């Protein structure tokens, strides 16, 4: 448990569980990774594993796509977006949020979620996809974020 390779082992174990379709077991491994999330006392750095935000993203994707629990997945993705300020995956989470909301039949809110992505993460790698979805979904708020 105190091995410096513990996080690597948990990540690999979760990946193996996913490959075998054992969704609940994979989620448990990802939660174990997240449980080790540390907060520095002086906010002068981070002691988090490199897998922490990836584990949160995978939790959301499994919950949404495999377990078909979109509302629970929304909570997980919002937590990634809001509670992981240095993660490069925050825009991925926001894009998933928009797609899930659209799947729930809330088109206006989905378009608003795309605008939020483009405003909060203008340099993110999901901006191109967000713009394409705005056009595809015929969002009325398209003009407010065009680049």
Describe the SSE topology.
Elements: H1 6-19, H2 23-35, H3 52-66, H4 70-83, H5 90-103, H6 107-120, H7 127-136
Helix pairs in contact: 1-2, 2-3, 3-4, 3-5, 4-5, 5-6, 6-7
Summarize the structure.
With 147 residues, the chain is mostly helical. Helices cover 64% and strands 0% of the residues. The protein starts with 5 loop residues before the first helix and ends in an 11-residue tail after the last helix.
Explain what you see.
The protein is mostly helical and 147 residues long. The chain has helices spanning 6-19, 23-35, 52-66, 70-83, 90-103, 107-120, 127-136. The radius of gyration is 17 Å and the shape is elongated.
Give the biggest beta sheet: none
Shape: elongated
Radius of gyration: 17 Å
SSE run = HHHHHHH
Helix content: 55-70%
Question: In whole angstroms, how far apart are the ends?
Answer: 49 Å
Q: How many β-strands, per DSSP?
A: 0
Low-confidence stretches: 40-46
The number of helical elements comes to: 7
The share of residues in extended strands comes to under 5%
Q: Average pLDDT across residues?
A: 90
Structural class assignment: mainly alpha
What descriptors fit this protein?
about 150 residues, mainly alpha
């Amino acid at each position: 448990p105190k091995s410096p390779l513990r996080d690597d082992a948990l990540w690999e174990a979760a990946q193996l569980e996913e490959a075998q379709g054992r969704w609940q077991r994979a989620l448990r491994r990802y939660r174990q990774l997240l449980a080790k999330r540390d907060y520095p006392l002086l906010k002068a750095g981070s002691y988090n594993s490199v897998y922490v935000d990836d584990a949160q993203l995978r939790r959301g994707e499994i919950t949404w796509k495999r377990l078909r629990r979109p509302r629970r997945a929304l909570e997980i993705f919002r937590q990634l977006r809001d509670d992981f300020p240095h993660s490069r995956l925050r825009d991925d989470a926001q894009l998933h949020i928009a797609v899930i909301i659209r799947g729930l039949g809330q088109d206006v809110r989905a378009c608003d979620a795309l605008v939020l992505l483009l405003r909060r993460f203008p340099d993110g790698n999901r901006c191109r996809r967000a713009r394409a979805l705005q056009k595809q979904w015929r969002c009325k708020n398209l003009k407010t974020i065009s680049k």
